[in-house]
Amino acid sequence: MNRLSSRILVVAACLVATCTAQAHGIWFAQRATQLALLYGIGADDLDSVKRQSMVQSIAGYDADWKPIPTKLRVAGPLLLVDSESQPTVVTAVLFNGIWSKTPDGEWIKKGRDEVPNATTSEKNYKYAVRIVGPLTSSIPPLPQQTLQIVPVGAIPQLMGKPLKLRVLFQGKPVAKARVMWDWLNDPDGKPVKTAADGTVTIKVRNQGLNVITAIFDGPSDEPTKADKMEHLATLSFVLPHAPE
Amino acid sequence: MKQVLTSFVALLVLAVGSVSFNTAYAHGGTQPEHGGIVQLVGDMSFELVPAADHVELWVEDDGEEVTSADLAAKLTIVDGSAKSEVALTPAGGNKFEAKGVKIGKGAKVTALLTLKDKQSKIAANFTIK
Asked: Rounded to two decimals, what is the model's pTM?
């Protein structure tokens, strides 16, 4: 019985690991003083350049939420953000295609129409918002950010302090979105679900780069190919370190 | 006695570690050299000098002066509801300048520096007091 329980646990753990590995995200982080768009999960900062064609939008906004001309440029293995002026917020959207999970647990990049025995098929969108700052007003629902994490009130300047967030789906607060406080350093952490008003309160994890994630499954717009659409959004910001 | 000694060594290691950590932070000067306002952004030090009839920007990289002629710089000035952009001109050494510009108290200024590769950019934010 003990052996059976152990096997069940191992299988369950593998399933969880497989699901987690599938859920990659995009976020912004500084690389050699420049802002880069990254793709991956945890410490896996994967090849974003080869995914550039999947980036559907990149945008920058000033403190009054007016667009600033912004594009991505390839610099070696990185996709760097290139704005004409310093943006207050930068956003991106990446369409990660349709993926199906076979009965033996493999994820393949095909729809249900091509994998009829799939246990699940999903269409994957990744969103990213980076607060470059300083903010002078609340972040509104931003164009093309179908799923978006918005701070409620000011972001505390010290790690460990509570941070209230609201998750928006199609511009409106959404319940039961799964929020994770640190996509880079705690990617297997237990998500916290948003309340009916879309809010959730977490602690600020890092005195440095913070990448908060929200995941929400929405209805499929191509039911023959995908059972659902998985939306994965990140909100990234930096808390300053102590004066030198 | 052995326990006390172990604790002492542990404290010493922690103390040395803290000093090393703080030392590793230091990149450049934070004190103004031209009467302006200094902002450190990573390795880069920006000193903005808002004068009565012009504005200056002095830049250093990791404590070393960088030649302004190799770089490009501009200011975005938000003063109340008014927003303007000012191109800065290299003015010798590590200095940029724009004449005929007056920045009022309370204005928020972003200095955007384009580096020698003509692509990489670094920005610093100031509030004029």
From this structure: 0.84
How many domains is chain B built from?
1
CA distance A244 to chain B (A): 6
Q: Read off the pLDDT of residues B65-88 as tens digits, 9 standing for 90 and up.
A: 999 999 999 999 999 999 999 999
Q: Enumerate the domain spans of chain A.
A: 25-238
DSSP string over B73-109:
EEEEEEETTEEEEEEEEE-STTEEEEET----TT-EE
pLDDT at B8 over 90: no
Interface contact B26, partner A, CB < 8 A: yes
3-state secondary structure of B44: strand
A residues 115..144 contacting B (CB < 8 A): 134
CATH of the domain at B79: 2.60.40.2480
Looking at chain A, list the stretches that DSSP marks H as alpha helix, in order from N- to C-terminal side: 2-22
This complex has an ipTM of 0.79
Tell me which chain A residues have a C-beta less than 8 angstroms from the C-beta of B122.
Answer: 33
